[in-house]
């Protein structure tokens, strides 16, 4: 058990991710990404030679450089996904606020019309 800390951390990460999915806290879109990432880290912790083999496959001299590169790529992808979803939600909030303002204006108009007819 040379890599106990890596196995423990990745196992804990997988348990927390799967629990978040089961409880419904995490959306499936992100859950698949996090579970895949957790499984990848768990496999690398079980058999670190996979990292060296993959680095040689891509022509990268140091396996740690490949790990850093792929980590940056994955984090960039996650940031892009979150930014995209945030932009969509912001546009939806503006649309809903506009609709709410129009409905409030219509209610005020109807109440004023009703008060004028009653009096």
Question: TL;DR of this structure?
Answer:
The protein is an all-alpha fold and 119 residues long.
What does this structure look like?
It is a single chain. Helix content is 88%, strand content 0%. α1 packs antiparallel against α2 and α3 packs across α4 (63-118). The chain folds into 2 domains: 1-47; 62-119. The N and C termini lie far apart (86 Å). It has 4 helices and no strands. With 119 residues, the protein is mainly alpha-helical.
Structural class: mainly alpha
Outline the biggest β-sheet: none
- Give helix % range: over 70%
The radius of gyration over CA amounts to 26 Å
Low-confidence stretches: none
Q: What is the beta-strand fraction? A: under 5%
The dominant shape is elongated
Please give a handful of descriptors for the protein shown.
single chain, 119 residues, mainly alpha, elongated, 2 domains
SSE topology:
Elements: H1 4-23, H2 28-46, H3 49-58, H4 63-118
